[in-house]
Structure formats: C-alpha cells, structure tokens
Amino acid sequence: MLLRIAIYVTFFLAVSHGATLPYHDNAHSVEDGDKSGGKRTKDPGYVRMPVSRQKFKSKGKSKRGWHWGLPPDPDDIPPALEPKRPFQPTHSTSPTRPPQTPWPSATQSTLLSATSTAQPPTVHRRAAERRWGWSSLEELGGIAYIIQLDIGTPPQKVRVFVDTGSYELWVNPRCSTSASDALCQTFGNYFPSKSNSALHIGGNFAVTYGTGAVRGSYWSDVMSIAMLQIPQVQFAVAADSNYTFAGILGLGYTYPYSIPYPSVLNLMVSQKMISAPIFSLGLGGDGDGFSEIIFGGVNRWKFAGPLVPVSIWPPVRDQDPRWVQYWVNVTSVGLTTPNEAGKLYTPREGFAMPTLIDTGSTLSYIREDLVAVIGQQFNAEIDLQGNYFVDCKYRDMPGTVDFGFNNGAMVINVRYKDFIYQLYPGRCMLGVQPADYGSTNYVLGDTFIRGAYLVFDQQSDIVWMNQYYNCGDGVVTVGQTPRDTKNVFGAC
C-alpha cells in the first residue's frame, strides 16, 4: 500500500525521508512490551507505511498445530525502501505465506452485550437481528483515524489506525523507537501472556515502510470491535518496529488474495454478523469531532440522494492478486474558488487517473502538473523536498477542491478547511502533493475522504460514494444481495 501518515509532535514537525529499523543487541519479546532498550530515532514528518511485504518464514505445522517457534531474530531486519522511491510498492516473490487459523463456526460468534461502551446510532431493530456493527473513530488532528479494539480474555484495550490501503491487523509498536514515545504509550498494548484465550500461530510478519519497518509473529485471540465479538482472529504482534506509533487495522482485500487466512472483515461475514464484506466510512470535517465506521451497514443520514457506484479500476481480476486495492478512476480535478464558478484543470473527456483511496494517508498524492496548477491558486511555496505549503488563512475561506468520477456523474467537493492540512498553528500544507517522480501510484488520502461518504463493497468490487453531510443518524443493512446499496437513499 501507499500509506503516509504525518506525525505532529508538540509544535514542531520535521520532514524526513527514508529510515532503517535500528539494530538491537537484545531480542525484544512480544511478552515484554516496550521494556527493552534501543537507539532513539528522530521524529519524522511522515511515516510512509507498508510498501512491501517481506518473505514469510512459517515454522510449519505439527500434530499440535503451528509451531510456536522463537521470537524473531533481531538481526533479521527488513531493509528500508530507498529514499528516492518511497512510494513504489514492491512485492515478495516468496512462495511461502503466513500460517492460517481455521475459520471458526458461526455458533462461536456472539454480539457484545448492551453494556458495551460504544454508543451506536439509533436503531429500530433488536440487537439479535442487527447485521451491522458501528464504531466511532477518533481523529488524531487530521493525521489519522483510530478505532478501539478489545483483545483477549480478559479484554485488553488497544487503539489502532484504520487503513483501507493495507490488509492485515497488527498491534504493539515499539514506543521507544517511535516518532513519539508519549503518544505511542497512549494507544495501549496487547500481552498474549495476560490472555487466557491467546494462541501463538507461528510464522514471521514483516513489513517495510518508507520511514521504518515492523516485524513480529502471528497470534490468534478473541476480539471485540464495533459492537461485535469475534473469536479466533489472527493478527500480528510486533516484536520490533521503528517510527510508527500505533498498530494498524488493514481493511483491504484479503482472503483469498493477499493472505491465506480470514481477516477481521472476512470473519464478520463467516460468523453472520454482517451480510457481506462491506463497510462504510464517514470521517466528517476536520476537527468536527464526529467520525464513524459501520461494518455491513450504511448511515443514510450522512449524505443526500443515492450513492453512486464507482467501480474498482483496474478491475480486481487485472490487479496483482498479492496486492488488490481500492483503486478508482478519477476522471476530473478542479477548483471552486469563493464567488467564482468552478474551474476544471483536466480535459472534459478522456481523462483517467487510477487512484488508491487510502484512509492511512494523511495527504493525497496525484500528478505533479495538477498539484502545480492547484498550488498556484493558493500561492503555494515549495520547499527543498518538493512539498507544497500554503497560508493557513485559506482554511477559513469558502471554496472547494473538486474530484470527479464516472465522467462527472459524481463530483466530491472538498472544503478548503478539510483539504488544507495544518501541520501546526501557522504552518499548513496543500492537501495534494506530487507523487514520486516517475510513479503512477496516486493516492486519495484523508484530505479527500473528509469530503465524501464512502462505502467499500468487496462483494461487488465497488466504492459507493456521495458528498458527505451530517444531518442525523440511521443505519441500514447492506450486502444482503449484491449491489443492494443502490437502494439506499440519503436523508439529508
């Protein structure tokens, strides 16, 4: 995936490109938390998250199941991506794959009781009949969006980034080598030794980042998420990491594509908690204080009219099966300035820009020529690294940056306030930045997603979308039949 997260540390942010996982003299066990030492790294401006998978080294299966094995060798460090090309995804050519846990039976699944701390939108059906799960998301200053998990028996609270640009769940970053030790500590840790239901699966998990890396091993445990309790969820527990200060919940395409075991979304379906691998996302405006995710449902009070189907493009069948993503075709880019008609910066016909929708990317990354012309409208300044900075005053002005799909059938108008990213008071970045030189790996990150209500539909290979509004709450189940999301009309 192409995940970039800007990290705001106190009142200063420095841009850094490229990093390697530091060497540690002592192995760091997942049972030990963050007790071991390690050389402290500098705070980066961006943590560019997983861009390559490392070779899996499973221990094999015995009569007792997967071997537990020893903690990963601290010398077995995945290499960092070359600083000049941090966005180009690479793929492992290893035929080996991570070990897998069996798909639990539907009778093992249960819904959380009414005493759950989550407060869902108003519903008009009994909980036993509900086929969706709701959770609020915590906004981290426009940087990323966070969901709480309760893992193990008794439950241990862990907060992770929600990421549509990756496909696995992992927890327990090493805080001592993260961009912000203090912030990392607030996200919680999972200790398998403290859970009566933990099972060590085996195999090695390793991912390289544009700035840093993470590695660990696979475990299985009971997990509560979005009002649902799922047994036997397989996920990775980090033994070592660098720069990243929180774990990640990947919500991309998984089984049977990128991994051979069922993901959290797959398990929700197999346990009949939701009807199909579908989830909806409403991040809301920057700083509005309301963001949500709904698995198996749509909140019809977050948009007006019908949701427009935007097909995954290139189609799933044409994508690398090891790296299937939510690519969509952007067919226009424009700007609506205060008191003026909208301007189009792309041809009215024939323009195509396949772009990944990625909640894990703070900013959006598109063609450099488009960034340049948009930057001119904001009198942007370019630093030595090629980053576009603008005056923060634009955040308080009316106006939108406009992204079109389906040849203009759907246009998402993103408010300046949601589009221009404030690094810290008085320092703002343009919401779109140039993709790496020569790269066509374009990304629509949070600076786009805040303007849209999105439904990620793996059943029909569609991202349904409309303009985001917030006029109340009311959830409708989707996925009972293919493409039934088309029947949901927004109430705003």
From TrEMBL:
Region (Disordered): 23-125
Limits of the Peptidase A1 domain: 145-466
Basic and acidic residues composition bias: residue spans: 25-45
Matches recorded under InterPro entries: Aspartic_peptidase_A1, PEPTIDASE_A1, Peptidase_aspartic_dom_sf
Disulfide bonds: C392-C428
Biased composition (Low complexity): 105-119
Active site per the UniProt annotation: D163, D358
GO biological process, one term: proteolysis
Similarity comment: Belongs to the peptidase A1 family.
Pfam families: Asp
PANTHER family the record matches: ASPARTIC-TYPE ENDOPEPTIDASE, BETA-SITE APP-CLEAVING ENZYME, ISOFORM A-RELATED
UniProt GO MF annotations: aspartic-type endopeptidase activity
Record key words, sorted: Disulfide bond, Signal
Protein name (record): Aspartic peptidase domain-containing protein
Keyword Transcription: no
Basic residues composition-biased segments: 54-66
Signal sequence segment: 1-18
